[in-house]
Amino acid sequence: MEYHTERLILRQWKQSDLEPFAALNANPEVMRYFPKIRTREESDEMVKTIEQRIAENGWGFWAVEEKSSGAFIGFVGLNIPGYELPFSPVIEIGWRLDNEFWGKGYAPEAAHKALEIGFEQFAMKEIVAFTALDNIPSQRVMEKLGMQRGEEFDHPLLDEGHPLRRHIVYRIANLK
Known about the structure:
Blueprint: E1 2-4, E2 8-11, H1 18-25, H2 40-57, E3 61-66, E4 72-79, E5 92-97, H3 106-121, E6 126-132, H4 136-144, E7 148-154, E8 166-173
Helix pairs in contact: 1-2
């Protein structure tokens, strides 16, 4: 199972993705809007969980490869959050790309494909995205995708007073 855009491939994970994914997850700039950077073990465990969810659902957070170089650049895809949110149950769209690949339009390009897959192939009714209120770059991607800004909320996994606790949700509905 592989999906193509003009410049990218959304695909299953490979063993060779583990090292660059761990580096991405340990990069403070990439992880600035996440509660913490991840260790190699945590990163590898995350990939196992992602692979399991793709096997169960037929969709998930796919590895993203740049066609021109063959480089692993991060992940983009769909997920059911593993914790309760104020607007659960939901399917979210998410992305995490290595900062070396920022500013090239890759996140919206791959995310458009993920939305298309969710709506057309899996008949999803609505897909949401959420991020820390301060994460303006991700909010710009959400807006480029045609998502509508929704309500603010406190992320349930972050403690009172945590600087990233306040989040915003964006939504897009399947119009078919």
